[in-house]
Amino acid sequence: MGSAADCHNNDDSVDGLGYYAPSAASGGSANVHQSQKDAVLQTGCCVQTLPLETQHASLKRKKEAPLPPMLYSPILEHTEAPCVVLSVEKKLPSESDIEKYAQDNLNIHKKGIFRKKFSVRDMLSWSKDPIRKPMLVISDKALKKDACELFKLVQMYMSDRKAKLGSTLTTVALEICHLGYSKPPLRDELYIQICRQTTENPRRESLRRGWELLAICLAFFSPSPKFQPYLDSYMNRHRDPGFDFLEVGKWPIHVQISHYATLQIFRPSMFGNTLQEVMVLQKERFPHRKLPWIQCTLSEEVLRLQGAQTEGIFRVSADVDEVNTLKSRLDHWELPADTTDAHAPASLLKLWYRELYEPLIPDELYNDCVTHHAEPERTITIVNNLPELNKLVLCYLVRFLQIFARSEVVQVTKMDASNLAMVIAPNCLRCTSQDPRVIFENARKEMAFMRTLIQSLDTSFMEGIY
Known about the structure:
This protein is mostly helical. The protein contains 20 helices and 2 strands. The protein has a two-stranded antiparallel ribbon. Strand 1 and strand 2 (about 115) form a beta hairpin. Mean pLDDT is about 75; it is low at about 1-35, about 35-95, about 240-245 and about 250-265. One of its GO terms (cellular component) is cytoskeleton. Pfam families: MyTH4 (PF00784), RhoGAP (PF00620).
């Protein structure tokens, strides 16, 4: 959630949420359970470094009777110290209780031509597919449809589903919050959906956004008294004991939410937004810039650190901690002077392109790109048909890559136009098909399209544009 971003987002600062006013959380949040707030705050802070195993030490104590296997969610704990109990006055349920809640309350789904029932474990595990009926038993027909649409919105926010045309991360979050706030019967449904999508989730960025979404929803409405202890338990399993702030815990719930939101959840980031949103973020600081500051800064850093004389530039991975540190500093408009490895800004630059909420080359032009990937004149026409901002950003990128495609540079870096296109294309083009065969076949065409641009596009007009 919070700083994962990659704290990752990883990570990272939280994508696309700079438009939320933290003070908005004060309305309607007074009833949010204290332990839920603390748990979400601490969970959000730990998602950034996202890990591989998350069974808390308190869950490893010996029991008289063996428990069923825990559902897995890859969130790293920063410490092995025992988790501090969220509420000393109330013993929280164990993680297994959310499975018991599911057994008693889930609207068990069926699959296949023989209508085989999903197991509870399947129902509580991340899914890339939409649901055809609510997770919980709902009698109202209209609400059933809303519940299914709500799951799609959750998937969109978590980047597991393609967003609607014109949507942004902010508008999707607002739509989810509006549904939950205006239709109380959907609140438990929403929270169980988020619990599902943050369990056994294989995608780091998706997982971060899921916890982020949970914190946002809790800022506006709480779960029912019946589901509340189970949500407490679920969050307590994943909380990071390294973020126990006793003085903050004494504040009213809505103040805690606004405080944490200001520090983590709602802090705007230059990663994960649309190009237009990035330009809005920098407008006050750089009102005359025509290109994203983050793009130019990282590109210049690669050159300053002798990236054009570094073998495997853009191909060799950088140190993860160094990349995350650099990302965090840049989100605060700071450029560390102690960076010495050109691979760090190079890796972060690729990440920035890849995490754009909408691809640099819009979906509506994708088919043209892969169809005419080897035709210089057609590829140049496609570039000229891009929205003005997208065109400038892409041409700046191509001009930058053309530096590395020079023969004298290639002799050192071993990264010619084909190799550069191979590592850059997936960050600029996103296949619109879900068919693995199409994705595999188009990958070659995407690379060819980028190679054609590097070799043929005249970018001299970008001289002096920043």
